[in-house]
Amino acid sequence: MIPTRIEIIPSEGIVEQVTALVPLSTTLTVTCLPHHGIERTMRAAVQLSLHGYSVIPHLAARSLPGRVELTEILRDCNVAGIGEVFVIGGDRKQQAGPYGSALPVLEDIAQYTGGVMRAGVAGYPEGHPAVGALDLVDALLAKQHLATHVVTQMCFSAPKILDYAALLRREGVQLPVWAGVAGAVPRTKLVSLAAQIGVGSSLKFLSRKGPLARKLLSGDRYSPQSLVTGLQSQPGSIAGIHLYSFNNLDAVPDGPDQALTPAALQPALIRRATRDN
Asked: Is Transferase given among the entry's keywords (predicted)?
């Protein structure tokens, strides 16, 4: 079974929602949005870690005011028992401090923690609107000695994700690849999100698949189950699933053998998250 991590957005009340609905054995990642800032990410991450969750805060380089603030964040992580972060460049138009990309943040994290802090970095199976494909691979090659894994941008095509993982191996990037997968979400919201973050080509891939597309995108809610099944077709290619929950956490499992009916996540995915993390 593929291990699963669940990404949440640090919106108002999310800590209470998670502690009420999500098993403590679940690994959580806390995103960092430009309009929220890193402070909200770290506040939610620390609170959830102190509740007993394994938590991975996102650190957006362009949202970091400076090295002093990064040091304080790493100290907070140490106090809260957080041993892993996810470092991205970020979408903030005007950078808040000296960091314009993930690499210098990773370098400072390694320096401050002596290499103890684990760090994930981002990958783009469908490319990046502002960076060329070769530059993206070169950037991963430059960062891999400072990182522990790659998390892909949300994608809806298992072949694209698997081809991307194979491409990285051919180019010398040996980091484990976690596949970014959307959880169950209202279809209209999913299409809107896909357009905003530039993953439309994998949705077009679905549209060419006839019955598969109808199965995935029919009704009111998208289901990731077929995508996850496709990722499992090549064992060893994918290290795990990074599940974008969109904060849709509507049910609580009473135990590992109970039937699970969450609105945000497929039952099999929640079961893996509670068992494998």
From this structure: no
Per-residue DSSP letter, 97: S
The size of the chain, in residues, is 277
Q: How far is CA 238 from the centre of its chain?
A: 14
C-alpha–C-alpha distance, residues 146 and 138, integer Å: 14
Note down the domain range covering 188. Answer: 4-276
Number of domains the chain is built from: 1
Cα(268)–Cα(118) distance, integer angstroms:
28
The DSSP letter of residue 61 is G
Q: pLDDT (tens digit, 9 = 90+) per residue, 241-266?
A: 999 888 888 633 333 322 223 333 44
The pTM score is 0.82
DSSP 8-state symbol, 5? E
CATH number at 159 reads: 3.20.20.220
Q: CA-to-CA distance for 235 and 164, rounded, in angstroms?
A: 15
